[in-house]
Specification:
12 helices; 200 residues; Fumarate Reductase Iron-sulfur Protein, Chain B, domain 2; 2 domains
């Protein structure tokens, strides 16, 4: 009885059911108008995408459920999940989809919006890696593996650097990892081109 009482009084309980009034159908329409996302509303919810996805067993929401969340307009749930960051861009879902929906393009669109809205999981390394890679390329025109991994680790889990130290040292010692950051010629042209394409 004591255990049952503790369960019901737990502060960890959270409502899982969604109400339609929480949805934003205009957001769903906005996503469907983006390049590659046009087939969003033609989804049959057959689950073929989830069945063919090699990473769906690691996802908090399978691809079929992501499509359902987006179609109904549950923006925060769709953008704050880990699923969109685990997509390997293998296009298995798009190849097998009976409605030929470009699910990978939907995932890319959601990733971009999650970064803009700052709704991605904070300590999850993949969105942080994407941000740091973009910043580095924008600043210098190319990336440096050493500094990219270092910045990602400091923002997500600095202790993981301890596990990478031996491998990093071997790569530096054999000349396969450079500490020097290179810069392309005419980096200002790249920066002005990227500035013209930035959204938000």
């Amino acid at each position: 009885m004591k255990r049952l009482k503790a369960f019901w009084l737990s502060s960890e309980m959270r409502r899982k059911m969604k109400f339609q009034r929480e949805a934003d159908p205009l957001w769903a329409q906005k996503i469907a108008e983006r390049p590659g996302c046009e087939g969003l509303f033609s989804c049959l919810q057959c689950g073929t995408c989830s069945g063919t996805c090699p990473l769906s067993i690691y996802m908090d929401f399978a691809p079929r459920r992501i499509i359902a969340l987006v179609r109904e307009g549950f923006k925060e749930d769709a953008l704050s999940c880990q699923t969109i960051w685990l997509c390997a861009s293998c296009y298995a879902c798009a190849v097998h989809c009976p409605r030929q929906i470009h699910i990978t393009d939907v995932m890319y669109s959601l990733k971009r919006e999650a970064i803009q809205e700052k709704l991605y999981p904070r300590t999850f390394p993949i969105p942080v890696l994407a941000q740091e890679f973009y910043k580095m390329v924008r600043r210098r025109g190319r990336s440096s593996e050493f500094w990219l991994v270092l910045r990602m680790a400091f923002r997500t889990n600095p202790l993981q650097l301890l596990g990478m130290a031996a491998t990093g040292w071997q790569l530096i010692r054999t000349g396969r990892l450079r500490l020097r950051q290179d810069r392309i010629d005419k980096v200002q042209e790249l920066q002005s081109e990227l500035a013209g394409r930035e959204v938000g």
